[in-house]
Write a structure and sequence with these properties.
By secondary structure, the chain is of the alpha/beta class. 43% of the residues lie in helices and 17% in strands.
Length: 405
Amino acid sequence: MAHILFLNEFFHPDICASAAVAADHLPAVAKLRPDWKITIIAGDRAWDDPSIVYPAEGEYRGVRIVRVSRPVVSRVNLLRRVMGFAAFGRRAVKAADGMGRIDLVVATTAPPQGGDIARKIARRHGCPYIYKVLDLYPDLAATLGRLKADGFLYRRWLARDMRAMRDAAMVVSIGERISERIGRTRGVAVGKLRAVHDGFDPARIDTGGRDEFRKRYNPNGRFVVQYAGNMGLSHPFDTILAAAKSLAGARAVLFQFIGDGPQRRFVEDNLPPNAQLIDYQPAERLGEILATADVCLISQHEEMFDKALPYKIYGILAAGKPCIFIGNKRSEIAQWLAESGAGLQVDQGATENLTAAIRGLESQPERAAQMGRSARGLFDKRFHAEHAAEGWVRLIEKTLSTSPA
């Protein structure tokens, strides 16, 4: 029985994107290949509330969970974040040492040094590893101004990342644009590069008939323009807030900002009267949240199109909601929306275009409904979590078959 070890800083029941993806994929992989032993090493603290500490061991739908002690990681102080990630890495390596035979390691960029951690474990166990890139570091940190491009720390981080990619059996990213950038900037051979989109399990947005969120936050049935998710530095809000202010006179339109993150205070300080700021909701309410939206917004820094891919797109498509992507037209999301008719793309800073797009969808309900149908059609065709799980099974099978026994 092959033992496949996954590494991800967070796992079920955490609500962050990387945890949700792993919770979708790994049980599906275990179901497709019951002859494999699937283990995941994760941290013991909850992503959204570090005061919550999970048990050291557990099981979730056929996946064994091993949790290692993870210090509280600051979202603001870069040095403290690095120290916290390093502590997680040391403890993950030690935990893997006690697992006996490991046939393959699969690690992600959660934490950002995940590829290096996988490399260390794989060398100690004499097995191959796959490096999965969720967000491309240190490029992302430099783009957001958290690290000086071409500075000492940047060059050192990049060198370690290139080494992890060079020694990996395969480098898998969550998007085509990210893989293209890896090939262009890391010198990774095309034959080692793959793109497997995260996908989504639509069962996670089954409301079971519940409608409490809509009743509480939109009792008057207004047209809801919704941003739900992480309010991180890579998700600018200037254009959205400016559009909301320009639509303050449109009494039928309501903006909802749902979530938390470094930019929540900025949103709060600039919140117009026709908008609501709502706290993060439990994961089981995601279906209700999306059902409340008439159009969903995704915002991404213009220079991030080939360094990250916002996970929220999959839930929006699964919910059959029209989407407006505020970001670079070179993004895959912009391409998907244009080709499928599931939504629209607007440049950052193009407030008038965003305002016009919202007005157009609010005034043309059949057009919005058609976009929603196109969104669900695109999801069913390409982005169901089962598709991603099948892709990962093929990648793992290929890696195991081509690696020395």
